[in-house]
Amino acid sequence: MISRRIRAGTALAAGLLVVLATSPQAGASTNPDPNPGCQGPNCAISLSQFITLSGDVGNTGHVTVNVPPPPCLWEPIGNQITGSQVIVNEFGTVTQQGSLYGVYQSVQQAKQLLKTGTPAGTWYQLPINPADTPAEVQACLAEPLFFFAQPGQVPPMPPLPPIILARYAFNHMHIPSPQVQTSPRGKGYVNDATFVWANWPAGSTGTRAYRIIATLGNQTASVWAQPTKVSVAVNQLGTAYDNCGTGGSKYPPGKSPATGPGVPPDCGVLWTAAGAGAAVTATVTWDVTWAPYVLNGPGPNQLVTLTTAGTSPPLNVYQIQSING
Asked: Where do the structural domains in the chain lie, given as residue ranges?
């Protein structure tokens, strides 16, 4: 429960209890976080009303992480009629003397809106998380309990820990799976090396790294996903070698050397038997970091480590026939 109790004079006028949508399940990743957080749809909608995202925004393409519940965040309670009725029903008897958090002024505004029906807008209330630190509680209590926002207007934003912005941004970050390129293309030969590369489009950074920026009022956090390694696996017929760089083989695609029989590639497969339907999987490891400002490279704070993978089209592996004489 998230609560803020209001007293008028020495008498308890009303108690406001608001439930913040949370999920008891921790989100999974290759670097899991055991702390439960905010992943329910109501929470995501509430955050998305106020947070602006830029950069590599899109389908996640990766496992999401938990977003810690905010210390306080505005929740809509209705429009100029329905929201006003909620406020008047709960706090219509609050007097100006001793009223806290601007409740008396909100009640008078709500009564006027009920009388005229205009202007249009949305009422918000600001619940407080009981798990807050004393400093977070005081920061939230410095804001009014209610705010009426006309179209295009947003409530005054309470301070939000930057890790919340960073995790929310990561959950909306596009990190694609790689496309796998092999040489020779579409085939292989027993006891002869096939080289492998992992390809993906450049991000908004103009590089093979990806970045997303989240903004809430005058607060900013950004997340940077940097590829650190490519690993190779093969489903059959061969032995994988993954002395790979961040994009696969150290040799440029299409310019791999002729290694000779039995010499393995730096990054790829040495085939051991002929057959059809062989496939090579390339897995990219990403180091995901963040900072409470706009990043132009890897950040100082670790968020998660994750992997994305792609598989080549089926390959036919042939036996090279030798002819003597």
From this structure: 2-170, 179-318
